[in-house]
Design goal:
By secondary structure, the chain is mainly alpha-helical. It folds into 2 domains: 256 residues, no CATH class; 119 residues, no CATH class. Helices cover 61% and strands 4% of the residues. It has 22 helices and 7 strands. Helix 4 packs antiparallel against helix 5, helix 6 packs antiparallel against helix 7 and helix 9 packs antiparallel against helix 10. The protein is elongated. It starts with a helix and ends in a 6-residue tail after the last strand.
């Protein structure tokens, strides 16, 4: 790839990935401050909440969206360490999260450039196209829009590099490590390759245990295939990688089952795979080209990187069929091998259906760019129009920050679901409810919040007092989000402890037994 085209490509990709955030920062005003989240804000705030753990000086993870957090465990060290770094450097959280996300995506694009240059070493134009499509492309999920549905390429962020780059920092960084690993030559025991395998194994196990398991399986599967083909290969790279990442994966499995709170949280964290037809659309048109030209792809198996990509596709799809509650996590990065193998298959498929290679490339490129373009436009427009999901309102932020400075800053606070989502992203305050998956017994907790705030006469005092005492609530927030739920009788005639822009917080500790 020529230097000029290389820099232009990077500039365009980073501009697309940063446009929503730039829009958010430019649209801040006295009443609204941009949070830094772009894609899927409901999950985005949970990453900020994990960073708050580090910003508060802690290293052990406890559930930020659950009243009884339980004992801490060394989970999510990436975000907790990021929080420590932001505190030491004095960097604003929204700015820090955005920079982490963009740097991670930048590194992922670099690794994809190396991958496509390796596979298409004899055709730099195809390598450049492969970089664009792998780093920015989507699938055909957009064809479901007229039916009121979104294909999986609109919401499974870990499967697509660009979508992962919009979502958070750890997905693109994990994909970068996975791509780097499959590019490492099998040279047996050599210092530099062994060191890289060990470091990437540790890093990947921390960022994505499912990515680590999948990558270890890819390396092992490729080694078995090489042995079956009579290729002289070494098992040591597989061993080095596996032993480097297994300890933390084992620790993490133990940790998420070691306390009642974490065990309950794990049990309700369901991420099943999408339907088979959705998977087909999500990775089309590449999956169709690969099926049509599978014999030609199979003949290219002597190329080690191609062999890795084939194993990645096969194992990635097989693992998504495993019957357990997190099967979708194994779709991590699947669009990368599908795209590269699809481009390899394209000339053969074009010949079979009697269409020029250039025309086929144009058609496929046009089809897979629709989803990411729509995502950029939709998120940018939502942020530009001050959608509440992307901003902190001044009153809410002032009250949360004031409350976080009272005592140890860990008071249990009653708030609506919308406000509860924001509170842990700005503080270490505990909440009754804030997230459909991160709050243990989420449905029950949400129901408790709604019952507390619903309109009641003075007879309702007893039920509200019971909720406060049973849940050990210390403070009650009351702003625009809470007003939509109703007007608690217990707050009538009471003076707020603090108020900003019509958002109030009441001290109810005197009501506790």
């Amino acid at each position: 790839m020529k230097n000029r085209n290389f820099y232009l490509l990077f500039a365009l990709l980073l501009m697309a990935c940063s446009l929503p955030s730039i829009t958010g920062f430019l649209n801040q005003d006295a009443a609204l401050s941009y949070s830094g989240v772009v894609f899927n804000p409901i999950d985005g705030y949970t990453y900020l909440a994990k960073m708050q753990i580090g910003k508060s000086g802690e290293w052990l993870f406890t559930l930020p969206y659950t009243p009884l957090a339980g004992e801490g465990r060394l989970l999510y060290p990436f975000y907790i360490a990021a929080g420590h770094s932001l505190r030491l450097l004095g960097v604003d959280q929204a700015v820090g999260f955005t920079l982490l996300r963009l740097v991670s995506y930048f590194l992922l694009v670099l690794s994809i450039v190396r991958l496509t240059s390796s596979v298409f070493s004899e055709n730099q134009n195809t390598a450049s196209l492969g970089t664009i499509l792998a780093a920015f492309g989507g699938g055909l999920g957009w064809v479901m829009l007229p039916f009121g549905k979104f294909g999986a390429d609109f919401w499974i962020s870990e499967a697509f590099p660009f979508l992962s780059g919009l979502a958070n920092p750890h997905f693109p960084l994990a994909l970068c490590l996975m791509t780097v690993i499959i590019l490492i030559p099998n040279t047996g025991i050599r210092n530099w390759t062994s060191l890289i395998l060990i470091l990437t194994g540790i890093g990947l196990s921390v960022l994505s245990p499912f990515g680590f398991i999948l990558t270890a399986s890819i390396l092992a599967g490729s080694w078995i295939w090489e042995k079956a083909d009579g290729i002289n290969t070494s098992i040591w790279p597989v061993i080095f990688f596996v032993i480097s990442g297994v300890p933390y994966c084992v620790y993490q499995y133990w940790a998420v089952h070691s306390t009642p709170q974490l065990a309950a949280w794990t049990a309700q964290n369901l991420t099943p795979s999408p339907a088979a037809w959705d998977v087909f659309l999500t990775f089309s048109p590449w999956i169709g080209l690969i099926v049509v030209s599978w014999k030609e792809i199979f003949r290219l198996r002597k190329l080690r990187t191609v062999r890795h990509l084939v194993v990645w596709v096969i194992l990635g799809l097989v693992f998504t069929l495993i019957p357990f509650n997190l099967q979708r996590r194994f779709m991590i990065g699947l669009s990368i091998p599908f795209t590269v193998l699809g481009l390899l298959a394209l000339p053969f498929a074009a010949k079979k259906i009697r269409i020029s290679i250039a025309k086929m490339q144009t058609i496929c490129t046009s089809l897979v760019l629709i989803t990411p373009i729509l995502l950029v436009v939709m998120t940018t427009m939502a942020i530009a129009t001050h959608n509440d999901m992307y901003y902190y309102k001044k009153g809410e932020k002032d009250v949360i920050l004031w409350l976080s400075q009272q005592g140890d800053g860990r008071h249990l606070t009653m708030a609506s679901g919308e406000t509860g989502l924001l509170i842990p992203s700005l503080s270490r305050l505990r909440i009754v409810y804030g997230h459909p998956f991160e709050t243990v017994n989420a449905e029950k907790a949400l129901n408790t919040v709604e019952i507390f705030y619903e309109d009641k006469d003075m007879i309702g005092l007893e039920s509200e007092l019971s909720i406060i005492q049973e849940n050990q609530v210390e403070w009650v927030m009351y702003g625009a989000n809470e007003k939509e739920l109703g007007s608690p009788a217990i707050l009538k005639g009471q003076e707020p402890a603090f108020e900003s822009n019509e958002v109030k917080v009441y001290d109810v500790r005197d009501l506790l037994p």
